[in-house]
Write a structure and sequence with these properties.
The complex is a heterodimer of chains A (352) and B (85). With 352 residues, chain A is mostly beta strands. Chain A has a single domain, classed as 7 Propeller (Methylamine Dehydrogenase, Chain H), CATH 2.130.10.10. Chain A has 1 helix and 28 strands. In chain A, strands 3-2-1-28 form a 4-stranded antiparallel sheet, with no helix packed on it. In chain A, strands 4-5-6-7 form a 4-stranded antiparallel sheet, with no helix packed on it. The longest helix of chain A is centred in the middle third of the chain and has 4 residues. With 85 residues, chain B is α+β, with helices and mostly antiparallel strands. Chain B has a single domain, classed as Ubiquitin-like (UB roll) (Roll), CATH 3.10.20. Chain B contains 2 helices and 5 strands. Chain B has a 5-stranded mixed sheet, with helices on one face. In chain B, β3 and β4 form a beta hairpin. The model of chain B has no long low-confidence stretch (mean pLDDT 96). Classes of the chains: A mainly beta (352), B alpha+beta (85).
């Protein structure tokens, strides 16, 4: 049984199924934007980041998604800032017991030490001396990627659009930016010296080889073999250098999956053909996987709307679209089927 | 005391639609409301003390803002704006 938590413009949907046939078994936060929802595998607790158009963003937690949710505390900006928290983009379990991280707009990183009920701002990143120079991307100044190092709570990677990658080796006390090798070709060549103008879209770490990371950038797909210290372009062979999410097979550190979109203002699949592109050699070559996916569909797959379950030959892949459909593969991308439709625009998909 | 009237979901968070709250300005009344009903903290006023963009507060039927003066017996209505999508 696979559980999918689908965050949409109009609430959270829980889908349950066997990899092929799914049904909606719970809905929560009707009418509100659910940017992200996940289930902490350590506790079974569900956490959702929800933005009320009227009443602002907050995290909610529950042990039963068919029952009541409890609002968490502490996801606010310090008093005296010019603005309030706009949105919470992502929630990720940490490596230390009870620790979770959350990221949001305009760039805050929050940490919880009680399983998600109370949160505090990471002061080291928020007070970084470069912060006045951080600029937002189209989606805001969003801290959207949080990648802990398996087994080592002291090492953490986060990414902010359009700032770039940040690394910490001391549990988040101090931070350094790390965008070496990434080419921001959306600025003139003579303006590319700025080390923090990088519109990173998503980063995933290979759990079996934690120094190996894959990145979907605003223009290009990159790989790091040195824990994010440097990045190399591995996007040759893809039909577009643009896309939002990236996924890896936990069993294979040479694997990555992307969903190319036409960049600039379009952000739909090239020629309308929805395809998931797979590499099994670290990005040297890419192969389109589209058996069962639409041939003509002008939809957008957002950053958090692609996830996996299992690994190896049993790898399941799921992604949702702004058209309200969710597609799934139970055979590592070889074949696909629609597992849900007529949902509100999908913002996030996470397996549980 | 001002009489503060809320609608769902705010009324659910505060355990009722109407509340007698003391305060000399709209902000003071809303801060006092948060103090009496902590679950509503951050819902009407953001963490910078500003009324959220898509929330309207009326004082005796007239649109108010944070600094609007409030007198004993005034009626405050807190409503979602006619916005959204």
């Amino acid at each position: 049984m696979t559980e999918l938590l689908v965050g949409t413009k109009k609430g959270l949907f829980r889908l349950e199924g066997d990899g092929a046939d799914f049904e909606i078994t719970a809905r929560a936060f009707a009418g509100q934007s659910v940017e992200y929802a996940m289930r902490d595998p350590r506790t079974g607790r569900y956490l959702a980041s929800v933005t009320s158009w009227f009443y602002g963003p907050r995290i909610w937690v529950t042990d039963d998604p068919t029952g009541d949710w409890e609002q968490a505390e502490g996801t606010v900006l310090p008093e005296g800032e010019e603005q309030a928290l706009e949105r919470l983009w992502v929630i990720v379990p940490g490596e230390a017991e009870g620790v979770l991280y959350a990221g949001g707009d305009p760039g805050p990183l929050y940490e919880s030490r009680d399983g998600g009920l109370t949160w505090s701002l990471n002061e080291g990143l928020w007070n970084h001396p470069t912060r006045p120079d951080w600029n937002p991307g189209n989606g805001g100044l969003c801290l959207h990627t949080i990648a802990p190092w398996p087994g080592d709570p002291s090492r953490l990677l986060v990414a902010i659009s359009a700032v770039g990658v940040w690394l910490s080796d001391d549990g988040g006390t101090t931070w350094r930016h790390s965008n070496h090798g990434i080419v921001p070709d959306y600025v003139p060549e003579d303006a590319r010296d700025n080390p923090i103008q990088h519109c990173v879209h998503d980063v995933r770490r290979a759990p079996g080889r934690p120094e190996r990371l894959f990145m979907q950038f605003h223009g290009g797909v990159y790989r790091s073999d040195d824990a994010g210290a440097s990045w190399i372009d591995v996007g040759d062979g893809l039909p577009s250098d643009f896309g939002f999410p990236i996924v890896v097979d936990p069993a294979d550190p040479d694997s990555a999956y992307v969903i190319p979109l036409i960049g600039a203002e379009d952000r739909t699949p090239p020629e309308g053909a929805v395809r998931v592109w797979e590499t099994r050699d670290g990005g040297e070559t890419w192969t389109a996987r589209g058996d069962g996916l639409p041939e003509r569909a002008y939809l957008t797959i957002l950053r958090e709307a692609f996830d996996s379950a299992g690994e190896g030959t049993g790898l399941e892949l799921y992604f949702g679209a702004t058209s309200g459909e969710v597609f799934g593969s139970a055979d590592a991308g070889a074949s696909w089927r629609q597992v849900a439709d007529h949902l509100p625009p999908v913002y996030s998909v996470r397996t549980a | 005391m001002a009489q503060v009237t809320l609608r769902a979901p705010l009324s659910e968070l505060c355990g009722g639609r109407t509340h007698a709250i003391a305060g000399a300005t709209v902000r003071e009344v809303l801060v006092a409301l948060e103090r009496e009903h902590p679950p509503i903290a951050g819902w009407v006023l953001d963490e910078q003390g500003r009324i959220r963009e898509h929330v309207n507060v009326f004082v005796n039927g007239i649109p108010g803002e944070e600094r609007t003066r409030v007198a004993d017996g005034d009626r405050l209505h807190v409503l979602p704006a006619i916005t959204g999508g």
